[in-house]
Design goal:
This protein is mainly beta and 614 residues long. The protein has a single domain (7-612), classed as TonB-dependent receptor, beta-barrel domain (Maltoporin, Chain A, Beta Barrel). It is built from 5 helices and 34 strands. It has a 22-stranded antiparallel β-barrel. Strands 3-8-9-6-7 form a 5-stranded mixed sheet. A hairpin with a 6-residue loop joins strand 11 and strand 12. It is globular. The protein starts with 6 loop residues before the first helix and ends with a strand. The relative contact order is 0.14. Residues 174-586 form the TonB-dependent receptor-like beta-barrel domain. Residues 1-24 form the signal peptide. Keywords: Cell outer membrane, Ion transport, Membrane, Receptor, Signal, TonB box, Transmembrane, Transmembrane beta strand, Transport.
Amino acid sequence: MSFPVSRQAAALSLAFAAAASAHADPIPDTVIVTANRTPQRAEDVIADTVVISSEDIARAGAGSVADVLRRQRGIEISRNGGAGTNTTVFLRGANSNQVVVLVDGVRIGSATTGAASWNAIPLSAIDHIEIVYGPLSSVYGADAIGGVVQIFTKKSEGAPMFSASAGGGSYGTNQYDASVHGSTGGTHGVTYALSGAHEESDGFSSTRPGSSSYNADDDGYTRNSVNGRIALRLAEGHEIGAQFMQSRLNAQYDSGKSAFDTHNIQELDSYSVFLNDRFLPNWRSSVQVARSEDKLGSFTSTAPSGATQLNTRQDEFTWQNTFDIAGDTLQVLAGHRKEKVLSSAIADINRTRITNSVAASYDLRRGSHLLDVSARNDHSEYGGKTTGAVGYGYELTQDLRATASYGTSFRAPTFNELYYPGYGLTSNKPERGRNAEVGVQYRVAGVDLQANYYRNRLTDMIVSVTPCPGRPNGSCAYNVDHALLEGLTLAADTRIGNLDLRASADLQDPRDETTGKQLARRARRHASVAADYTVGAVETGVELQASGRRFDDAANTNRLGGYGLLNLYTTWHMTRDWSLLVRVDNAADKRYDLARNYGTSGRTWFAGIQYGSH
C-alpha cells in the first residue's frame, strides 16, 4: 500500500514527544470501559482507544459533539450546514451506520438510516467520551464495523455540588446549562445527578449558491435537553438505579426560495433501569432494561402534506455476568433487542425487527502477555450471524508494547435498505467485515507514542445501484460492492512542564474495490496538532486541523478541496469555583467544504463563564 503523505512528514507529528521524553511529567492512569464492557486500565486494553475528558469538552465552548470528535485521530465528519443540520461521522473511513453509538450503555440511532443523530446530542450533558477503533461486533453485535463511540453523561459521588454556565458568541449563539450531583452516605446511600441545558443560534445559510435548495436566509437552531441518574445502594455490592437523557432540536434548513420556514424537529431520548450485583467476590452481574427513541418531524409547508413524522424505537434487555478467575476475566452475556419504525407518510417501513444475542469473552494477562478472545451470535430475521475476535499484546520492555488482532463484524440492513418504496430490497443481506490490525505503543516518563496499521475488508456492501436488478427504472439499495478500509494512524502525546502537546496523523485509503473509487467525503490524509500552556490560573491553547481533498460523490466527479483550520482558546480560573472561557474557531476565516454546496462557518468566537462548587 502506498500512502499519500511522506513518511518524513508523518514522523514530524511524533518528533516533539520523543525529544522531550527526558523532562516529561507522568501521564495519569486512565480507565476504559467500552473496549470489553467492563472497567480496565488503559495499559491492559489491546484495542486502539481514545478518551475525551471532561476538560476537553469544557474547552469546546458552544461546539457540537461532532466538532469535538473531529479533533481526534481516525475521525472525519460531513455536515449539511451548521451545527443543527444533518451530520455524518466517519470512523477509520467507515460510514456512520457502521459505527455503534452508546449513551451510558444504551444504544442510540435511527432504525431507518442506521446512524446516530449526532446533531441532536447535547454537548453540555457529556462528562467524557470513549472511542474504541476497529470491529467490535463480537462484543456489541450488529453495526460495530468501524468501532464504537460511548458517551458518558455527568454523574458524581460525594458531597452535593452545583455547577452552571452561560455564554454567547457568533451567529447569535447563546448557551445556558446547570447541574446538581452528589450522594448521601450510609448503608443505603443514594447517588444522584441532574442536568439541563438550552442552546440557540441564528446560524448561517445551510446552502450556498449552486444548490437547487439555496436560500440566502440564516438557518438557526434551538436545542433543549435534560438528563439525570439516580442509584440506590441496597446492600454492600448491590445497586439499583435509573438514568435518562432527553434532547429536542428545532433546526432550520433550506428548501428553495420558499416563504415558509422549513425546519426539522428532532427528538432523541434514552432511558434505562439497571441492577448491579456482586453475588460472590468473583462474580458480578449487571442487568439493564433500556429504551431509546429517535423522532424526526419535517415541516416544509403549511399544507397537511408538508408535515411528516418518522419515529424509531429500540428496546433492549441485557444480562451481563463477569467472573474473575485467578486474575483473568470471563464474561458471559445474553441480550434481546427490538427495533420498531412508525412513519406517518411511508407505511411500508412500519415494521418491527427482533434480535436475540449471546456472547462470551475471556481476557487474561500472564507476565508480559495479554490476550483477549470474544465471540457472539446474533439471530434475527436475516438468520444467525456469528462474529469473533482475538487480540494479543506483548510487552517487549516496560515501556514498549506491540499488539496484533483479528476480528469479524457485520452490519444489518437498515429499514430503508429493506423496505423503503422504490429503493429497498427485502433480499438484501448484512454487510460483512474482516479486520486485521497491528500496533506498537511506547510510553515512558509522560510520553505516549502510538502507531496502528489496519486493513478492514468489507463484502456485500450495500450501495445505490442504477438500474436496479429486477426494476428497469430508478436505483435501489443492493448488495454488490466490496470495500477496503486501510490505513495507518500515528499519535503522540506528552507534557513538558506546563506545556501539553498532542498530535496525530491518519494516512488512509478508504476505497470501493468494485469501482476503484475513493469512498465519498473521506480524505486519504488528515491530521491534527494541539498545544496547551498553563501559567498560574490561565490556560491557553491552540489547535490545528488539516484534511486532504475528498470527493462529494461515489463516482469521484465532484471534488472537495483540502483545508486547514486554526482554533484558539483561553481559560482563566478566576477563583476556585469560577472560570472564564474565550474560544475562537477557524481563526484564519478559512472557507472550506464538508459537503458540496453546503455552508460552513467562518471565523467564530464564543465567551462563557462557568461556576462549579467544590
